[in-house]
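# step 3/5: fold
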Amino acid sequence: MDWDIYAAVRARLIYAGRLSRDIIEDAANAGSVTDAINYLRESSYYAYIRNVPVEQIDLLELSLYLGLYKSLAPLLGLVDKSYRSIAEHGLLMIENRIFSSIFQSIVSGTSLNIDLKLFEDTRLGEAYRIAVEERSITKLLEYMSRIGMKDFVTTYNTLTKAVDARKAIPIATDLGLVKSLSRIVEDFPSLAEMVCPENDYIVINTAIRLSRERLKDYIGAEELSQLACSVSKSEIEDLYSYVNEEAILNTLKKIYGSTLVQKDLENSLINIRKHIRRTVRDKCYNAM
């Protein structure tokens, strides 16, 4: 039962809610942001980005996340209360990204300019209200703690003692997320096949970021590996000893094989991400 519920929500997320597979593949292979948006004209999600300037990539991303979130959040009301927490886990990743964007807007002093009605009947509504009306980091952190995002708050407060808040936010978001995902695997072992690939990818990216920002002392290799499903302590240590891209690529080859890993880090991570999404998507599809 837990597998079926999680798969139902995750499959809709991976297929981008009401987007067809063809639209997703065309948009993913588009040569520019403008071309990608043109493919979305065929979907209901275009309504969320119609008035967003193409050059505002962060706002475009957030607007699409919101459209996806709004299409999926009502599903939670259809799930039996005994299993609702499992369905909520399916929305966990996208919700974390939206919170991160809202938080980033306060830190950077930018305006999101999004209709508050998009957040009606979701816990994102109060977060957005604080961001728009009060512009208070302290109040937003307090709110996030109250709604179960203490991992983000604790990590953010610690990291901002060493780095700029704008650098701390994505790391805190990912660390908070993998801590939540690792608890899902612990509580519901049957979900491991769907959760672990994405969880481990986030762990690897976090290790690379922490190493680049010289923050690896914040969380040790052993502790970070405990949050992973199959990334070992020694592999985390290799990622932590970041010297150049070649060293990271060699470690990625050990984990994912040479087929996915190219000559540069950015394209290698993109290839790995595509592979993971395809793998999880197929598992969700087969489970339904």
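# step 4/5: annotate
Residues 158 and 218 are 8 Å apart (CA to CA).
# step 5/5: archive (pending)
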